[in-house]
Specification:
Blueprint (H helix, E strand, L loop, with lengths): L4 H18 L3 E2 L6 H15 L6 E5 L4 H11 L5 E2 L8 E8 L10 H9 L3 E6 L17 E5 L15 E5 L11 E6 L5 E6 L5 H4 L10
Parallel strand pairs: 2-3, 2-4, 4-5, 5-6
Antiparallel strand pairs: 1-7, 6-7, 8-9
Helix pairs in contact: 2-3
């Protein structure tokens, strides 16, 4: 991949844009779509808690198709995704920003409660809306995901379109997808390379952080 410096620079710029919009320090070079990205974010939360917590709470009303995918992925893991109840068994709180009705709700109390018991806060955030609203990190997010189709990517019969994923520093090695880093070559010239590849399938095999590998 390192021979394709132009492509890597483009992906690096995409990651930079996502970090600026979300306020979170690390972004991957995209995922598949919003629903898949939210499911991957829940996976990060479960791995962070070493699968010792089995509940995911919801603040607001995410798109129903997003919840369908998350629940499908969560069921074989024995993880419950439902309701607003936050307790010591809650691995993550999903926050819709905005929700499926376009409402930016006040979820401050739920976010504070989740953070108090160590649950990760996952924002499902519209990236175009983030050009006008506070960044998820400022509102208490540990992870932010959302659809990039909002930036004008044409829809081909319902898809495909990309999604973004950004995380706090402590979650970097748990996040799915490719990471493009900036470095220098043997002659001191700036360049781009894929970073932290030990998280990925071609190295970790069944212990990889996700099935995202392209």
């Amino acid at each position: 991949a390192e021979i394709s410096q132009g492509r890597l620079e483009m992906l690096f710029n995409f990651q930079t844009l996502v970090t600026e919009l979300t306020g979170l320090p690390v972004a991957s070079a995209s995922l598949l779509d919003e629903a898949t990205a939210v499911a991957e974010a829940v996976g990060i939360a479960l791995r962070h808690h070493r699968d010792k917590r089995t509940k995911v709470a919801i603040a607001g009303t995410p798109h129903p198709q997003t919840l369908d995918v998350v629940r499908t992925r969560a069921e074989p893991l024995g993880t419950e995704v439902d309701g607003e109840t936050i307790d010591d068994n809650t691995a993550a709180l999903l926050v819709s920003w905005p929700d499926t009705f376009g409402v930016y709700g006040d979820h401050k109390a739920a976010i504070e409660k989740a953070r108090a018991i160590g649950a990760l806060v996952i924002f499902i955030a519209d990236p175009l809306g983030l050009t006008l609203t506070d960044a998820p990190a400022k509102l208490g997010a540990d992870i932010a995901v959302g659809p990039m189709q909002r930036f004008g990517v044409p829809m081909g019969f319902g898809g495909p379109h990309a999604a973004y994923c950004a995380v706090s520093d402590k979650l970097t090695r748990l996040m799915p997808g490719r990471l493009v880093g900036q470095s220098t070559d043997s002659k001191g010239r700036p360049g781009y390379r894929l970073a932290l590849q030990t998280r990925e399938q071609h190295i970790r095999r069944d212990k990889a952080t996700s099935n995202i590998c392209t």
